[in-house]
Design brief:
This protein has 240 residues and is mainly beta. It has a single domain (5-238), classed as Porin. Helices cover 2% and strands 50% of the residues. The chain has one helix spanning 40-43; strands at residues 5-10, 51-59, 63-72, 88-97, 103-112, 126-136, 140-151, 154-166, 174-181, 193-202, 207-217, 228-238. A hairpin with a 2-residue loop joins strand 7 and strand 8 (154-166). The longest helix is centred in the N-terminal third of the chain and has 4 residues, at 40-43. The model has no long low-confidence stretch (mean pLDDT 83).
Length: 240
């Protein structure tokens, strides 16, 4: 964070949690599944990754207020329209309490002109209200979030919760298990659920390997049968 404010301009590619100083929950990053994100940032924000503007205000060492705006063009873009009359627009505001101590927490609001990310139609607007918390005990943490969304034709509640251990068996490693109810997807009749266990192992300062086990139900079409499954994943990360 800067001494007072940081301003970010993006021609394309930023939306949702790209505008915030911290997503609070430590599953974001080490986890292999997108649900560690958490996913309400994607479902409640613009899915078009258009042009945007973000401002981050810092108040001392522990408090940050992040504001972001994204303008997108799902179809053919019309440059004469301008970013403030775009086909799809989204806004995000998040207040984060992120000291070095025991408690990290945040509250967020997202608005999206289109609600196609949720069950309920392709038109209208989505409003999402979320709270995030991380209790850091040093060698381990307990964290999670809850998010409520209202949109054209209904509402939705999603959440995740879990715990993790730093330096688990190997110095620099990260082990975590979390699960929860994910945002309702367009075309589904209920919320998907997911549980993931991951173990991020640093092999060197350049290479990290993360095996993970993921169990969940995609719920894209329950009429087609039960889509519950168990998957294994292995991610290798190279940093230069």
């Amino acid at each position: 964070m800067g001494n007072l404010a940081d301003v970010t301009l993006s021609a394309r590619g930023l939306s949702g949690d790209n505008w915030v100083t911290s997503t609070i929950v430590p599953f974001d990053g080490p986890s292999v599944a997108d649900a560690g994100g958490p996913q309400f940032y994607d479902a409640g924000g613009s899915s078009s990754n258009g042009a945007g503007l973000g401002v981050s205000f810092s108040f001392g060492e522990s408090l940050a207020l992040d504001l972001g705006y994204t303008a997108g063009y799902p179809g053919a873009a019309d440059p004469s329209v301008g970013i403030f009359a775009a086909t799809s627009q989204s806004y995000i505001a998040q207040l984060s309490f992120i000291p070095d101590g025991f408690l990290n927490a945040g509250i967020a609001y997202l608005h999206n002109d289109q609600s196609d990310a949720f069950e309920g139609g392709d038109e209208g607007a989505t409003n999402t209200y979320a709270g995030l918390v991380n209790l850091d005990f040093g060698s381990f943490f307990v964290a999670g979030h809850g998010a409520y969304s209202d949109f054209n034709g209904g509402n939705d509640f999603s959440w995740t919760a879990g715990l993790g251990f730093n330096d688990f068996l190997i110095e620099g490693s990260k082990f975590g298990v979390y699960g929860g109810q994910l945002p309702q997807l367009s075309g589904s009749v209920s919320n998907p659920f997911l549980v993931e266990g991951y173990y991020e192992i640093p092999f060197s300062k350049f290479i990290t390997v993360t095996p993970a086990i993921i169990y969940g139900d995609a719920n894209f079409d329950e009429a087609a049968g039960d889509s519950t499954g168990l998957w294994g994943a292995l991610r290798a990360t190279f940093r230069f």
